[in-house]
Amino acid sequence: MGLGIVGYHGGAIMTEFGRAGAMHPLTAESLRAALFTSGPYELRPATAYTDVDRPWDEPETFASEPPMTPCPAGWTWHNADRVVEGVSWGGCLEIVSWLLMADRAIRPAEAHEGGVLFFETSEEMPSATEVYRILRCMGERGLLRRFDGVMVGRARGWSLERRTTPEERAAYARDQREAVLRAFAEYNDDALIVFDVDFGHTDPKLVIPYGGRIRLDGPAHTITVSY
Q: Is the pTM of this model over 0.90?
């Protein structure tokens, strides 16, 4: 059973507090709101981001902030014809899949009725096929149809072990989006879905309340969380 205690997804020590140069302004603003205020907070989309790391064992890495890549203003919306508000659940998709396999810290599917699912993928860069399969298993378990809204983090398409080109990163993000849409078309085709929200393994990183309320306003294209 859940205890009703709201946690936070975001605010990692090494990647946010230890970011080279300075913490990204959007990250800092979101963290301050989460730690020092309460109530509704409207998230702001990034206009530039990065998923490219620089080696932490090289001192020059920390001499300047990481270079950023411009991105389209706003998020990408699907079924954005209504407003959805509910309690959030999710996290890193690979970790969620492990918890489901181990049947640890997992509440009954019906406990998420009307909620907002949020998930993102890590620097291990699972394939679009793997993302689809994880979501398909969640659908077979009866989870996906319980959520009225879904937030998908900006896909990380680069790692020190797999140094992709900008074109490869764009293709990776596109394939992952298509995999998500395929799964929800099969298990919950009415869900409101918003893509490229900056709460994943990319920079900046917005803080998402885990077990708190999230409001997805499709017509206004706004996301409001409650800390």
A: yes
* Residue 167, SS3 per DSSP: helix
Residue 203 DSSP symbol? B
CA atoms within 13 A on the CB side of 88: 27
- pLDDT of 157-192, one tens digit each? 999 999 999 999 999 999 999 999 999 999 999 999
Cα–Cα distance, 106 to 187 (Å, whole number): 19
> Do the beta carbons of residue 179 and residue 157 sit within 8 Å?
no
- Residue 213 near residue 41 (C-beta atoms within 8 A): no
3-state secondary structure of 158: coil
Query: Is 118 exposed, middle or buried, given 0-12, 13-18 or 19+ CB atoms closer than 10 A?
Result: buried
Beta bridge partners of 219: none
